Amino acid sequence: MSEPSRNVEPSSTPDAELQQFNATWASPRGFPGWLSEVNNRPLGIRFMLTALAFFLIGGILALLMRIQLAVSENTFLGPDLYNQLFTMHGSTMMYLFSVPFLEGLALYILPLLIGSRDVAFPRLTALGYWTYLFGGILFYISFFVGEVPDAGWFAYTPLSSSKYSGLGLDFWALGLSLVEVSGIVAAVEIVVTILKLRAPGMTLARMPIFVWTILAAGLMSLFAFTTLLVATLLLELDRTGGTKFFDADFGGNNLLWQHLFWFFGHPEVYIIFLPATGIISMVVGTFARRLLGYTYITVAILVTAFVSFGLWMHHMYTTGLPELSLGFFAAASLMIALASGVQIFAWIATLWGRRPALRPPLMFVLGFIFIFVLGGMTGVMVAVVPFDWQVHDTYFIVAHFHYVLIGGAVFPIFAGMYYWIPKFTGRMMLPKLGHLNFWLSFVGFNMTFFPMHIMGFFGMPRRVYTYLPILELDGYNLFATIGAFVFAAGTLLFLLDILLSFWWGAPARNDPWGGDTLEWTTSSPPPSYGFLVPPVVRSRHPRWEAETLDCPPSASIEAANQRATQALDGRPTEWRGTLVTHAVNATPQAIHYLPGPSYQPLFVAIGLVVALVSVLLKVHLVILVGVAIMAIALGRWLSPKPDLVKRLRESDMADRAGLPILTTGSRSVAWCGMVTFLSILAMSLVALVYAYFYIRLYSPQWPPAGVSEPSRLMFTLSYGLLVVSAPALMWANRSFNRGYENQIQFSMTCVLLLAAAFLATNVYAVIDYGVSINESAYGSLFGLLSVYPWLLVVVGALLLINAQTRAWSEFRDTQGHMAMQMQVTSLYWYATVAAAVVIFGTLILSP
Amino acid sequence: MRNGFTRSVILVFVGLLLCSVGCQGERVQSSLHPEGPAAESVARLWWVMLTVLGLYTLGVFVLATIAVFRRPTQEPKQPTNDREGRRFILIGGAILPTIILVPTLAYTVHTTSSLRMRDTGLTIRVVGHRWWWEVEYPDHRILTANELVIPMGEPVKLELSSADVIHSFWVPQLHGKMDMIPGTTTKFWLQADREGIYRGQCAEYCGLQHAHMAFVVKSLPPDKFVRWLENSASATTVTEDGRGFQLFKKHGCSVCHAIQGTEAKGWSGPDLTLIATRETLAAGTIENTPQNLLQWLVTPQSIKPGVNMPATEASAEELQMIVDFLLKQNGSSTERGDDDE
């Protein structure tokens, strides 16, 4: 297929400027430079390689377990080691492999798919990588300390409490916290990038399916990972702070953990599975040279994402829940089944009669369809309450979720790798090895996991290190173990294939598969900025436009798009810049400044690790050191270099493109980032308030016997002070917009004084109330929910002071960077006040 | 070659599936070999779902295969263009599954409601411990462990709770599972239709020896069951002066274990009043024979590594006397051979 010329336009920028452009975008050199990398492509590769390393480790753990289970009453691993291995296997595959791998893939390929030069917040990419890497290392250091987590990847309380689990669980909880931070950060990144950085003309309805799936997964991660972060925080507080959230003897509730965990855990499966189906749609579309049912697929993705948050009770059918609303669950399960069915049939319809070439990516797609349909069917079955009573926590479930997760995620990942690795490395993989890998993986997988359905029926529970001969399961287990090794051989071939392709692989052309999406217009591998000239998109299939252009773009839109992209042709040269477009219709809105290499993300991550490790080692003073490192690094991160704003203000890019550089409101990527961040805060608050009411619901007396009611008057007064700060800040904003210099200072000072008054009175009121966090779940909840607004207010006060100081000299900048800072700061503060009101309602007002 | 490969794989699966259905061997812990009404209706539910969903799955596989391998035809009868393609997607992926799933789900809801908690009958309290089961008949003042004796043909109410972490009570041949959660009591019921012994096992991961936390349910015909109740309730005929009991005390057994009616009142291990009548030792790990009991006393850590039971350090003769004492006290009157007469 010939390269359509309109997407690879030769640059008209003079050579000298091009050189400067390249230098601006070049990765920093040497090891120190490696540490300060922020570009999405090298970091995406790092994410994927690290995740692959964890995949191999997790796989080795699985093989060891399969050896232990090959025959009954085996003594290859003892019970303690086996329990540690299955805990680490599950944790590794769920937290350290599948999600980070897909994040890495998304970070790498997303800007290429949507025609931007990088993701929206490059330094967040780096922060996400470092927290992920450190979190993974923390998980595995436990092996060297000899205290390995052994309470399962789900860490049910009270088994995971300090009474029944040792230091290993602290490694687990803290390592997991870091990985959660990484997941949330990547989610912010992905959501804002997709909504704001798409190529001109790429309306929502023209986004490639893969972009839809990671948008859905990103939005889901914001809510799911935040809930898990809150849950692990509560667990760790119970373990090291002596709180009683999950201690039934003190009014805590063990099912609370399960609710919070599965509110994360169920969507987690779809966070993994949806991007995987996105890969399938991309490969199927390319191999069939069309994609039928784009709208149906998109709707199916969104329905799945939404409904998956209503299904967490599926994991708790055997906990004796009172009066299950069966109709609701049946309907929700049905919707998920239909959404998956629609996707499957869309792929079948797309492939129908197109005689696709049976090359490795497509082979894995077909393998996926076979395995996933089986896993989906057992999924419908386990959603049925009485059936689940029988198979829950048996090998039937082990079989089911490996069909869903290996079939639904690992096979698509293999498909995606065979599909995109030529783009990453510039080399084609060796087709014979690919086919061999497919057959070994497919046969090995089914040999391993198909018999497990039957083992479950015949009475083999999950998470057992051995089983008795009277169960007569030796044959099935041995068969499964052999299968596991066949599967492992396939994976080894995949790695070998990557290595060998560097020597023997044919050089990859720009578009080896004849794909339709924008990444295939770049060279293989692509330069760090992706596109010298940002592409303009005119249809759903930018590479097949000639075939599929249905409605020609209007002349005025086309002109605006052309002007914006031409202005960015090899420019800006002194800083990294990319186009911002409208979230829905993708018309150019602004030029976005992207920061270059920076060490601050690494320092923030190091500060976080220092703080968490000192929690683990119970040296509480060092926590402050960690927090200090983090605060300094964050401060330097958030305050722009002094001349930067001036340079951006004076840049000629704005005139060339007819677009602003320093923007406010929804045009500003920073503003969008703040909104996303606030949705995370909101979710964490929802999780905490849920915990409060859940425990309250199951308590016979509230507050518990011997604890008095909090003083309504004092708390009303205290929270009232904070509420008053909101109108004061509105006044400050009004003054700012009108340029009233003195009024700004006065009103901002009022806000700060009110904040200080709130802190003082609230701290006093809580101390005066004197409820202990260590004596009842009520006290723990009251304490935590009281501290929550304090932290928000302290951070908010710092932001306000920063804005106020700057307003001293820049109060006239009512359209530019100062205005944006005022907006973002105010947004944060209003959210803080709202959170405090919710907490006041929960703790003090609720009857 | 590729087709041959696929065929052999399919053959293996079909073989396995047939074997799993056909092998009606001794399946002591199988949910597909039900012996009570609850397990029976769930098993029936499974076969119905397998048939319905299996046929649909098969249909999808056939369509996917045709999609990939069929040659493009001149006649556009098949879903080749957009509109037909869309209809194909809607019918195959949404409408057909709805037609299949709605009645299926209705049937499952029906099954669920038929399995509601039964209100009549005997109540048994079971408390999960790491890693054994405390069993109490509150109306008959019977305490035992790792074994439930129930009357056949009638429902038995269970009150489940836990002394430490979460466990799950599961006897696949009689019913599904129900979690045992510290701080709460969950309710469940069981019924066996025939006389027999059914194995159960803890199904919620509870730590080191989760794998060896099993028990048995023994169902007896009503008359035998009444006799069992009477014998067990009248409990102790142990003479505390006997040499056996003295050794039992001397070697510290009574620190953790109780024998009712004696001064042995330990509570952190299973109650041993009825040990002579039980089928298994170490919570379903080994069969209850004098030889095994001796082994268990001497090397519990090699039979169930990590169990709280320490090795009993006594001479061979003393050990034998303890074994004899345990297996011949009271319970010996209701011989274990009861059910295989």
Describe the protein.
The complex is a heterodimer of chains A (847) and B (341). The longest helix of chain A is centred in the N-terminal third of the chain and has 36 residues, at 79-114. In chain A, strand 1 (576-581) and strand 2 (588-594) form a beta hairpin. The model of chain A is unreliable at 1-8 (pLDDT under 50). Chain A is an all-alpha fold and 847 residues long. Helix content of chain A is 68%, strand content 2%. Chain B is α+β, with helices and mostly antiparallel strands and 341 residues long. Chain B contains 9 helices and 12 strands. A 5-stranded mixed beta sheet of chain B has the order 3-2-1-5-8. Chain B has a 3-stranded mixed beta sheet with strand order 4-10-9. Chain B has a two-stranded antiparallel sheet with strand order 6-7. The longest helix of chain B has 33 residues, at 37-69. Classes of the chains: A mainly alpha (847), B alpha+beta (341). Chains A and B meet through helix 4, helix 10, helix 11, helix 12 and helix 14 of A and helix 1, helix 2, helix 3, strand 7 and strand 8 of B.
Brief overview:
Chain A is mainly alpha-helical and 847 residues long. Chain A is built from 26 helices and two strands. Chain B is 40% helix and 17% strand.
List the main descriptive attributes of the protein structure presented here.
heterodimer, A: 847 residues, mainly alpha, 2 strands, 68% helix, disordered N terminus, B: 341 residues, alpha+beta, five-stranded mixed sheet, three-stranded mixed sheet, 12 strands, elongated, disordered C terminus
